[in-house]
Specification:
Blueprint lengths: L16 H7 L9 H11 L12 H7 L4 H15 L3 H22 L5 H8 L3 E6 L2 E6 L8 E4 L8 E13 L1 H4 L5 E2 L18 E2 L4 E13 L5 H10 L7 H32 L3 H14 L5 H17 L3 E3 L2 H9 L2 E4 L11 E7 L3 E4 L10 E3 L2 E3 L5 H12 L4 E3 L9 E3 L2 H12 L4 H7 L2 E8 L4 E12 L2 E9 L1 H6 L1 E6 L2 E4 L2 H16 L3 E9 L16 H4 L3 E10 L6 H10 L3 E5 L4 H11 L8 E4 H5 L3 H8 L3 E4 L3 H13 L4 E5 L5 H6 L2 E5 L5 H6 L2 E3 L4 H27 L1 H13 L10 H11 L1 H7 L23 H29 L17 H24 L16 H19 L1 H7 L6 H8 L1 H29 L3
Parallel strand pairs: 9-23, 9-26, 19-22, 23-25, 24-25, 26-27, 27-28
Antiparallel strand pairs: 1-2, 1-3, 3-7, 4-5, 4-6, 4-7, 8-28, 10-11, 10-22, 11-12, 12-13, 14-15, 16-17, 17-18, 18-21, 19-20, 21-22
Helix pairs in contact: 4-5, 4-10, 9-10, 9-27, 10-28, 11-12, 11-26, 11-29, 12-26, 13-14, 26-29, 26-30, 27-30, 29-32, 30-31, 31-32, 31-35, 32-33
């Protein structure tokens, strides 16, 4: 027997309902129990297969085996070999704490498939052996006849064979929340995606209205839902730009530290002629000194602090590295509905043959008015307007529930398009509930996709055009106009003329061209003496009722853009970030919204439909992606294809999404962003970040924080590397003098700076908020190294040189104060216990620490004055400064620590000298920044004049 689960593409949608049964080898009485069991034995259960998860133990250990962690393990081991066990323990402890923190932050990531399984219903109602039965959803097989009712979740892909006003919510697959009407008719159109085909339903979706029956065509991993699960499971996660740069930086630091160690070993052997063991231990200490042990904690803390700031701005980040990836983002692929728009259909214009009205207010709250010119209009004073909004509201099955708490949102029951008609009536002064009581509904002719309209019949309390019963018709303008023989003009019905018909259709076309949705409203008086009206309401049909209509007007609506989105898109443009809309909505609507919020500015943007994209090669797609482009009616695998092509072009891509259909693209993206309010659990689990307000502007705030993280890591690198120079200069002077200048800074004192005094201020730099101009810069090149030549020059030849001069000045200050003069032997030659020498090394150590106080303030900004941000506005840095001063005082005053760190107490004048260093270092750098800003201001007008 043929495997019917894989026979679906033969196009059961093109068959009539009767032929579907024979094609799938079933009947209206359903399968027999024996046949169902036989099919399950051949094809398996209706389950989403899960991939094998990585062991939590391995995930935990991975935080201790990347390159930087390995470097720290090695540094700790070298410290033990060099006879510095306290240092070795400290370095290893830094590694352990950082690894545990990183694992804890990321533990809940990667559960997309689990969430997918939870979305599938547990039970399904089917017809088997001619009887309705409730069975486990996993026992469905191709050929089963499912019974569908309002509220049911659909358990498998199926072909509808019976439908009564059947509407399905397909937002999990398409991202669009409007219910989709389903039919049992054969569909012969070619250019339709699976989701657009009106006689197919899909696993993971739900019935929002009506009833029906459908024959199962696919189960498990063969369903559209299963295909998405397969795409999600097989997505390989790439390393983030930050991970790549940290790996590269680790290699650079390893090579640099090793070269410095070898250099100092050779200098010691050649000039000082120390014993091999002494020179070797000295060089090992220098290697450890040049490794920035605080880099990992600073990176982790920078990311964690950014996560906290982002959470206050409605963005929850699941993976720490995702924060910095956002900062590298060069393209945002965004959904439309609910992200760029408010996900609340709103009537913004009303049109009659006499007037065009503007409707103010946004959303489902009845706040706003109907305006004609500059005046508010009440429908009770305008008969045409009253009939238009009353007809639209009565010819509707939606309901609006007020907020349960103050400041909450209205809840829509039913079709959002119909809900906004109720709101429009309220804004015009008509209360739908009162109108329903006065004109109760007595019959309904439900909407059908074939007719493109619906009709409701009402009993009137007072006559309308001589009749006490009326039929209101609402639907596609061209269909309603075609059936209309009269038009309401200035409160009176007039005969429909070609001129009036053209006027109506011209207005409709103008609205449609602007991406707005248009519904026409008409009515027909059902007079008792009209021979064309059936005497019995049971005989009412579209053929007998929907004729000789009186056209009233047009209700024009759209899901309006969020008010803050246009500014956010403009901010992206200034920041060099492209925004590309990928939506399940229609092209005209998508382009209209894109143009209003500034995503599209050109006259003729390229608009891809899902069908067109199928026929486009990757090379053609890449070429189109270089210009303004909008993607409409996209399937999940097509959205994924767009993301993959952008990544192949070298872009760092952020993707937004809320439905199951978005999960493959969310997981493939460099940064996946899910919606917190409307998003499914699947989308949230597949994403790296969740927006708690579903707002595009929150993504831009997150990018700002991401850029700040990378800038802060660079500030840290600048700060930590510049202290290496004042550590190295004293050692170099000692070696090059052949020992004539006693070692100004001992190995333990160097390590005191690296792991003691430098660590907290450096961590404070990781907490710096974004600079004011961070979003006026283009995205950084992912290939640009963390350690650039410019940063190295600034660290070593500017900040470091200042620190080196200061440290040696302090050392000589102590020597000179004790009586040393050029030509005399320095204190400490031949005895490292000489009190003057010990005090001189203490002054050298303290001078580096006090100079670093000025340097950490300098590192807070790149070109702006630190006073513009507030000199002491970063409390984390303030704590670090206080800590390092206290540490210096502590190790110089207490005898047990004096012996370990080779220090002695300092006098009042020593501290006066030291306190002059931070302002001096700060003033020199402030002067350089001021000069730089002045040069940049002078160059700016010239660059503008030259067109650059």
């Amino acid at each position: 027997m043929e495997d019917t689960s894989r026979a679906t593409p033969v196009a059961v949608q093109r068959l009539t309902a009767d032929r579907v049964f024979s094609a799938l080898e079933t009947s209206q009485a359903g399968l027999t129990q024996e046949e169902a069991q036989a099919r399950q034995a051949r094809q398996g259960k209706n389950l989403i297969q899960t991939e094998r998860k990585a062991s939590p133990v391995l995930a935990f250990l991975s935080n201790f085996t990347h390159l930087m962690a390995i470097l720290l393990w090695a540094a700790g081991a070298i410290a033990f070999v060099a006879g510095l066990p306290e240092l070795g323990v400290a370095v290893w402890l830094v590694n352990v704490i950082n690894g545990c923190f990183s694992f804890w932050q990321e533990y809940r990531a990667g559960k997309a498939t689990d969430a997918l399984k939870k979305m599938l219903p547990s039970y399904a109602t089917v017809v088997r052996d001619g009887q309705e039965q409730r069975i486990l959803a996993e026992d469905l097989v191709p050929g089963d006849v499912m019974v569908l009712a309002e509220g049911d979740k659909i358990s498998a892909d199926a072909r509808v064979v019976r439908a009564s006003d059947l509407q399905v919510n397909q937002s999990t697959l398409t991202g669009e929340s409007n219910p989709v009407r389903k039919t049992s008719d054969a569909v012969l159109e070619e250019d339709l995606t699976q989701a657009e085909t009106p006689n197919l339903i899909f696993a993971g979706t739900s019935v929002s209205e009506g009833t029906g029956r459908a024959v199962v065509t696919r189960i498990g991993m063969d369903t559209e839902f299963g295909k998405i699960a397969h795409l999600t499971q097989n997505m390989q996660e790439a390393e983030s730009p930050l991970q790549l740069q940290l790996n590269r930086t680790t290699k650079q630091i390893t090579i640099f530290a090793t070269c410095m160690g070898v250099g100092f070993f050779l200098l010691d052997a050649l000039f000082v002629k120390s014993e091999f063991a002494v020179a070797f231990i000295f060089s090992l200490g220098m290697i450890v000194a040049f490794i920035p042990e605080g880099l990992l904690p600073t990176v982790t803390l920078s990311l964690a602090m950014a996560v906290q700031r982002m959470s206050r701005r409605n963005a929850l980040v699941k993976k720490l590295n995702s924060v910095e990836t956002l900062g590298s983002c060069s393209v945002i692929c965004t959904d439309k509905t609910g992200t760029l728009t408010q996900n609340e259909m709103t009537v913004n214009h009303l049109w009659t043959a006499s007037h065009e009205y503007e409707v103010t207010g946004v959303g489902y709250a009845p706040e706003g008015a109907v305006r004609l010119g500059e005046k508010d209009v009440d429908a009770h004073a305008d008969d045409d307007l009253r009939l238009l909004v009353t007809g639209g509201a009565l010819c509707s099955n939606a309901r609006l529930l007020p907020p349960e708490e103050e400041g909450g949102r209205y809840t829509v029951l039913g079709d959002p398009t119909e809900a906004c008609l109720l709101v429009a009536a309220q804004k015009a002064g008509i209360e739908p509930s009162e109108q329903e009581a006065a004109w109760p509904r007595v019959r309904e002719l439900p909407f059908e996709s074939r007719r493109k309209r619906m009709t409701t019949i009402h009993q009137l309390s007072e006559p309308l055009d001589g009749a006490r019963r009326v039929a209101f018709v609402k639907g596609a303008p061209n269909e309603v106009v075609r059936l209309s023989t009269r038009v309401r003009v200035d409160g009176e019905p007039e005969a429909m003329t070609d001129e009036l018909r053209n006027k109506i259709m011209a207005a409709n076309d103008a609205y449609a061209a602007d991406g707005l949705r248009v519904l026409a409203v008409a009515y027909r008086p059902l007079a008792a003496d009209d021979p064309s009206v059936p005497r019995s309401m049971s005989e009412y049909s579209p053929e007998t009722i929907e004729r000789d209509l009186t056209f009233v007007g047009l209700e024009v609506m759209q899901d309006p853009p969020r008010p803050e989105v246009a500014a956010a898109v403009e901010q992206c443009r200034r920041a060099g970030i492209r925004v590309i809309m990928i939506t399940g909505d229609y092209g005209l609507t998508a382009v209209s919204i894109a143009r209003k919020i500034g995503i599209v500015r050109g006259e003729h943007p390229r608009v891809f439909s899902g069908v067109e994209l199928e026929r486009t090669s990757d090379d053609e797609l890449k070429e189109a992606l270089r210009g303004e482009v909008v993607f409409a009616r996209m399937a999940p695998e097509q959205k994924l294809r767009v993301v993959e092509n952008l990544q192949q072009m070298g872009e760092i891509v952020a993707v937004t999404g809320d439905g199951v259909n978005d999960s493959p693209a969310l997981k493939k993206a460099d940064i996946g962003v899910a919606m917190g309010i409307t998003g499914t659990d699947v989308a949230k689990e597949a994403a790296d970040m969740v927006l708690t307000d579903d707002n595009f502007a929150s993504i831009v705030h997150a990018i700002e924080e991401g850029r700040a993280v990378y800038a802060n890591i660079r500030k840290f690198m600048l700060y930590i590397l510049n202290s290496n120079m004042p550590e190295a200069v004293p050692s170099a002077v000692y070696l090059l003098s052949g020992g004539a200048v006693p070692l100004p800074l001992t190995t333990m004192q160097i390590l005191t700076i690296d792991l003691g005094t430098d660590m907290l201020p450096a961590l404070g730099l990781g907490c710096e908020p974004p600079e004011d101009d961070v979003m006026d810069r283009p995205p950084r090149d992912p290939k640009e190294p963390l350690l650039t030549g410019r940063l190295m020059r600034k660290a070593f030849l500017w900040y470091g040189l200042m620190g080196g001069i200061v440290s040696m000045a302090a050392y000589l200050f102590a020597q000179i104060e004790a009586g040393w003069a050029p030509g005399l032997e320095m204190f400490g030659v031949g005895s490292d216990l000489d009190p003057v020498y010990v005090r001189a090394t203490t002054m050298c150590l303290a001078a580096i620490v006090f100079a670093q106080i000025g340097q950490v303030l300098n590192c807070r900004t790149e070109t702006a004055s630190v006073f513009s941000r507030g000199l002491f506005s970063n409390r984390h840095i303030n704590v670090g400064i206080v800590f390092e001063i206290c540490l210096i005082v502590f190790i110089t005053l207490f005898p047990p620590f004096q012996a370990v760190f080779h220090t002695s107490p300092l006098g009042v004048w020593d501290y006066v000298f030291l306190c002059c260093l931070p302002p001096l270092v700060l003033a020199v750098e402030e002067a350089r920044k001021a000069l730089f800003r002045q040069i940049r201001r002078r160059r700016a007008p010239r660059a503008v004049a030259e067109g650059r």
